[in-house]
Design goal:
423 residues, Aspartate Aminotransferase, domain 1, Aspartate Aminotransferase, domain 2, 40% helix, globular
Length: 423
């Protein structure tokens, strides 16, 4: 189906056929949800051994009674696991509560109000604050910026990561740009892995940016491969080579590894940054939930155990991704109806419709019983200038439900495109 080459008669015929298919789908009264990248119940059950795993032994490897106060940095063994995930030294890692998003907000707030290395370095003291946001991107990152009145500058993503020519030009020209959001492996939502060249150029931004600039490196899917583990360049190694260690803050968590609402989050940063961030944490906490950290270390005592655990996740997720990609390939390969990446990990597939079609596709899908992430959510302020990007999250439904949802999705994309062409 190539709409640009179709006659009006052919378009009208397609519209009648697709409308009939759509009406038949609506009559089924489906109720399917592809909105959020949450683990399925099947995945969550992989970690049910956490319940009761301590068997009354609350002592960590260094003898700490984890039931008590203290230990602001987190358990040493948990920090060791975080260090393996990031590829940094354990001394550069803090292990905290269940949410890396909370850590991102805390770091952002530290930078805005208090400064990491000095009070004079607080971003808010310099006036207007701006952040570079590769798009399409993660909606929660944009929400954090809005919450703290940080202006957002969209920058295009390509197959290797953000458009670094654009990023570097912006950073050099405007000292009020204080940071950039990055999801470097299986980027949300495109599934792209940043190339080595892009990672090194991001590591070098601290040399050309204004004071206080920070890269927020959200490595949420560091170990979330569907097949063989694919490499991501170590940004801190590049930072050490270029003398920009203070410019990068790294985040990860076990939220999509164990129990999503009861995991462990990690942040890694230079010693200079840690000094300021510890001061911020110490004002609000006597220490994280070390009992939960210990539970996780009994379940996942080392990186090998973690990798084996993630293979079980992959075996559950792969058929769901296969169902999405098979539907897209069969429906749209060789057409002018849309484009998409084929991620090798993570939690999402991003699909770009023809311009000015995404909102209508999402609306029709919802009326047919399939909920999708709102069109525009993957852009700052919810405004996709092309109205084309749609994020598909196939992890929660069963494989058969994903297949059914994709039948609805494909029909809606075709119907909206044909109607637009006729108009």
């Amino acid at each position: 189906m190539n709409l640009n080459n179709a006659s009006n008669d052919q378009l009208r015929q397609w519209e009648q056929q697709l409308s009939a298919e759509y009406d038949a789908i609506v009559a089924q009264k489906l109720s399917l949800d592809l909105t959020r990248g949450k683990p399925s119940s099947e995945q969550l059950s992989l970690s049910d051994e956490l319940d009761g795993i301590l068997k009354g032994n609350y002592k960590s490897l260094d003898g700490t009674d984890t039931r008590n106060y203290g230990g602001l940095d987190g358990l040493p063994e948990a920090r060791e696991l975080g260090a393996h995930i990031f590829g940094v030294k354990p001394a550069e890692v803090l292990a905290q509560g269940n949410s890396s998003l909370t850590l991102m907000f805390q770091c952002l707030l530290t930078a805005v109000e208090f400064g990491f290395t000095s009070a004079e370095g607080a971003w808010s003291k310099a006036g207007r604050m701006k952040f570079i946001c590769p798009v399409p991107g993660y909606d929660r990152h944009f929400t954090l910026c809005e919450q703290l009145n940080i202006d957002m500058i969209p920058v295009a993503m390509n197959a290797n990561g953000p458009d670094m020519d654009q990023v570097e030009a912006l950073v050099q020209a405007d000292s009020s740009i204080k940071g950039i959001w990055c999801v470097p492996k299986y980027s949300n939502p495109t599934g792209v892995i940043y190339s080595d060249d892009v990672v090194e150029r991001i590591a070098k931004l601290g040399k050309i940016a204004g004071s206080g600039f920070r890269v927020f490196w959200d490595n949420a899917y560091a170990v979330h491969d569907l097949g063989a583990a694919l490499p991501l360049a170590n940004i801190m190694e590049f930072c050490r080579a270029h003398g920009t260690e203070d410019s990068v803050l790294q985040f990860a968590s076990t939220s999509k590894i164990t129990h999503a609402g009861a995991g462990v989050a990690f942040v890694a940063m230079s010693e200079a940054n840690l000094k300021g961030f510890r001061k911020f944490l110490n004002a609000q906490s006597i220490g994280p939930d070390k009992v939960n950290q210990l539970r996780h270390m009994r379940l996942l005592p080392d990186i090998d155990a973690l990798n084996q655990h993630m293979k079980k996740h992959a075996s559950i997720l792969q058929p769901r991704f296969d169902a999405v990609l098979k539907a897209l390939d069969e429906a749209f390969t060789g057409t002018d109806l849309g484009t998409w990446e084929k991620p090798a990990g993570g939690y999402f597939v991003a699909f770009d419709t023809r311009p000015n079609c995404a909102k209508e596709v999402v609306r029709l899908a919802a009326e047919a019983g399939v909920k999708l992430t709102p069109a525009g959510a993957t852009f700052p302020y919810g405004k996709d200038p092309q109205d084309c990007n749609i994020r598909i999250a196939p992890s929660v439904p069963t494989v058969q439900e994903v297949i059914g949802a994709m039948e609805v999705f494909v029909t809606c994309v075709k119907l909206v495109a044909v109607r637009q062409q006729l108009a």
